[in-house]
């Protein structure tokens, strides 16, 4: 949930409780003055906002506030002091929501400071007497929110949802003004981080300087919605599945606000006939189980989804009903295998990015569907959400398509040569993001394991200074805490982190699956595919020596290729070199039974910071161009994945 502390500007700062109480009285008085019917409105007390995805049901309604909003940059950080949240934006222009701001305006491409969003909305008269929540799918990086001039709270960290209960704050019968400030400053103590040039001696400069190789797009990247529910409603829901012979077992735990107690039921549809199970909710907690005879197990070959509904109340008309699609499946690590429904799987697919021209990292449903169609065309069965949580819509669509997903936190390029207080600040942020990620995505059958970080390193990339003594141990302790937290949050899935060139083994070895990125033939032994393969074989032997029989996934390998550049014999930057290197890696990896996945980097070209390594500010390791045209490597992989099995 969003942080609801109220640091409110100036002498008018009040406590959160005072603000809510005063505003509740004001809203009630305004409602009575503008609409006599409001006097009869049932009183609904504000509470904690649910973070469940806003699915509609007979008891729930959704209003999408996406569209054209008013927008203004605030390079001097004057907006809060000048109370723009009360007076509206002084010189706004239009911006689409969801979208990144960087590709839209000439003065905003490399702007990472504060910017303001503003829109107006009316409540549906049918929502009177109902609880109303305001939900943001993602704001990068830090958002502060006001409604009708009153501060609601803030959320730090992009890519994950946050929400506020605005019951009584959102006015009936009059326009409501929603104001949001968003900033994405590149800071040393954030996740992901920006190196400190005062302490890191770079031999390669990027602009903007980041510790990661993708562009730091900013803004409201996912939908903003209003959700109307009954006063008593399902607040949270956890589904775990398994098998008992030919039957499926669906265990459900759910929470109801207000400590409510009473009868409820679970209903599962999607089979020959609906299956119901009664549940008795006690003090806001319900626990139930459904057994599914002759169950259709969810898998890439048959991504069958059932619909689960939780209904509160014992009558024909439920007090509340919340429903979602689920898949019945199990995932486990056994020896050197990752097993889905008891059978070993081999992961073919990619790391990829939420990235497209104009939209930046803003949710783009046509691109999402096209990407999944191309994944099917090429023969992929999986992808990694590198290097941050992807949209909820992407996860739901992956459930439908049957893709296996490695769900990754925003912990990219963590550096352990930085001061201890900085490392601890990052840990707190990453632990919070991990909790938000697991809570959001734990019910998706597509998610087969969690990745806690990508390429954590003892010292920054592109620096000449040595890593200090103790950096490896600092990382070891950091990840020991984080792995323990992940396993506490979800005991049903494996956990891993993604290393670069195998190390440090003290970090990656804490995972249930060993994930590694390897760039022989590109960053190492450049231009020499044969020597790259020889080096790769040595890496594989080292992995086996360090980590025993744990399964290994090569989560990145490949080369940049500029579309249309050809060479014979193949050479770096040509489409032929990229295709040849990927094929050489693929054939080498498939000779080792304990290697259970191969994800070339990357699915498609994507925008990066400007640098001498990135022609056109693009990482061009994609097997598709940024606008999704196939390179030679795409057709080569399609042939390999079709003929070699998956």
Strand order, main sheet: write it out.
Answer: 23-24-25-26-27-28-29-30
CATH architecture of the largest domain: Alpha-Beta Barrel
User: pLDDT under 50 segments (min length 5)?
Assistant: 3-42
**What spatial form do the alpha-carbon principal axes imply?**
globular
Strand content: 25-35%
Mean pLDDT: 91
* Main beta sheet strand tally, sense and closure: 8 strands, parallel, barrel
Q: Quick one: CATH class of the largest domain?
A: Alpha Beta
- Whole-number count of domains: 3
Task: Characterize this entry briefly.
With 646 residues, this protein is of the alpha+beta class.
Comma- or semicolon-separated keywords:
646 residues; alpha+beta; Jelly Rolls; Immunoglobulin-like; 6-stranded antiparallel β-sheet; 10 helices; disordered N terminus
């Amino acid at each position: 949930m969003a942080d609801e502390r109220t640091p409110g500007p100036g002498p008018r700062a009040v406590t959160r409780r005072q603000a809510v109480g005063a505003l509740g009285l004001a809203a009630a008085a305004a409602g009575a003055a503008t609409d006599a019917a409001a006097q009869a409105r049932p009183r609904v007390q504000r509470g904690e906002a649910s973070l469940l995805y806003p699915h509609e049901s007979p008891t729930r309604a959704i209003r999408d506030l996406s569209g054209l909003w008013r927008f203004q940059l605030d390079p001097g950080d004057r907006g809060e002091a000048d109370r723009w949240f009360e007076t509206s934006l002084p010189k706004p222009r239009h911006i689409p929501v969801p979208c990144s701001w960087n590709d839209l305006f000439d003065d905003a491409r490399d702007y990472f400071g504060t910017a303001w969003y503003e829109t107006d909305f009316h409540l549906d008269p049918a929502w009177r007497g109902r609880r109303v929540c305001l939900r943001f799918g993602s704001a990068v990086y830090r958002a502060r929110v006001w409604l009708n001039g009153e501060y609601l709270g803030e959320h730090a960290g992009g890519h994950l949802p946050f929400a506020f209960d605005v019951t009584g704050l959102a006015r009936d019968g009059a326009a409501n003004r929603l104001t949001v400030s968003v900033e994405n400053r590149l800071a040393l103590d954030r996740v992901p981080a920006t190196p400190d040039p005062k302490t890191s001696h770079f031999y390669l400069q990027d602009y903007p300087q980041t510790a990661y190789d993708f562009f730091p797009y900013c803004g409201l990247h996912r939908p903003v919605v209003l959700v109307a529910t009954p006063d008593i409603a399902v607040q949270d829901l956890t589904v775990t599945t398994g098998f008992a012979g030919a039957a499926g077992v669906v265990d459900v735990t759910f929470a109801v606000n207000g400590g409510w107690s009473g009868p409820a039921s679970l209903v599962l549809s999607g089979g020959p006939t609906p299956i119901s199970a009664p549940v008795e909710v006690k003090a806001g907690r319900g626990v139930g189980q459904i057994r599914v005879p002759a169950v259709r197990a969810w898998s890439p070959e048959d991504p069958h989804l059932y619909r689960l509904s939780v209904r509160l109340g014992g009558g024909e008309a439920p007090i509340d009903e919340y429903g979602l699609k689920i898949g019945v499946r199990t995932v486990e690590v056994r020896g050197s295998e990752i097993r889905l429904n008891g059978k070993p799987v081999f992961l073919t697919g990619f790391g990829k990015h939420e990235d497209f021209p104009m939209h930046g990292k803003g949710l783009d449903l046509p691109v999402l569907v096209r990407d999944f169609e191309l994944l099917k065309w090429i023969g992929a069965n999986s992808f990694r959400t590198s290097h941050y949580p992807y949209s909820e819509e992407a996860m739901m669509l992956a459930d439908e398509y049957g893709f296996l997903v490695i769900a990754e936190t925003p912990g990219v390029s963590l550096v352990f040569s930085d001061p201890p207080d900085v490392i601890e600040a990052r840990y707190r942020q990453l632990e919070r993001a991990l909790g938000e990620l697991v809570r959001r995505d734990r019910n998706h059958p597509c998610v087969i394991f969690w990745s806690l970080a990508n390429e954590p390193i003892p010292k920054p990339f592109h620096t000449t200074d040595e890593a200090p003594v103790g950096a490896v141990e600092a990382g070891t302790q950091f990840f020991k805490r984080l792995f323990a937290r992940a396993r506490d949050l979800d005991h049903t899935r494996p956990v891993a982190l993604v290393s670069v060139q195998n190390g440090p083994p003290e970090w990656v070895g804490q995972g249930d699956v060993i994930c590694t990125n390897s760039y022989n033939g590109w960053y190492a032994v450049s231009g020499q595919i044969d020597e790259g393969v020889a080096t790769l074989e040595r890496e594989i032997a080292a992995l086996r020596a360090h980590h025993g029989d744990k399964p290994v996934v090569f989560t990145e390998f490949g080369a940049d290729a500029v579309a249309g550049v050809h060479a014979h014999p193949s050479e770096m930057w040509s489409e032929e070199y990229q295709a040849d290197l990927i094929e050489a890696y693929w054939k080498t990896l498939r000779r080792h039974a304990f290697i259970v996945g191969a994800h070339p980097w990357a699915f498609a070209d994507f925008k990066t910071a400007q640098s001498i390594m990135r022609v056109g500010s693009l990482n061009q390791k994609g097997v598709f161009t940024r606008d999704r045209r196939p390179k030679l490597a795409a057709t080569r992989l399609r042939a390999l994945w079709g003929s070699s099995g998956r």
